[in-house]
Amino acid sequence: MWQELEGIPHSLKNGENWLLSEEIIRYPSSNYSFYKLKLYLLSEQITRHSKKYIINLSLEITSNTKLLAQINLSLLSEDSWNEIVQKNQ
User: What order of strands is seen across the sheet that includes strand 17-26?
Assistant: First the structure.
């Protein structure tokens, strides 16, 4: 789902990101029609030996001001998300 978001550079949407873990938290709601998706870069660490990056992301799904779900992702990436996001701001 995060790969479909607008404004994310194409280089971060390629096959050079591997999903390490995923945690889905759903909050009680009578209506699951969402209004907004927000993707947050929480942290980035470089691995010692392979020069790859461990990226921690949080995708929030909201309906107006109510948080419906939060998806926490950890990725192994060939690229530094931090560097790419700063270049594209």
Answer: 17-26, 66-77, 53-63, 36-46
DSSP conformational letter for 87? H
pTM exceeds cut of 0.90: no
**Could you tell me the sign of the dihedral formed by the alpha carbons of 39, 31, 35, 4, in that order?**
positive
26-52 burial: b if 16+ Cβ within 10 Å, else e: eeeeeeeeeeebebeeeebeeeeeeeb
Which residues have C-beta within 8 Å of that of residue 76, sequence separation ≥ 6?
Answer: 17, 18, 20, 52, 53, 54, 55
Q: Which domains does the chain have, with CATH numbers?
A: 2-87 (3.10.129)
pLDDT tens figures, 4-37? 666 777 767 666 788 899 999 998 877 777 788 8
Identity of the residue numbered 40:
Y
Distance between start and end Cα atoms, the chain: 22
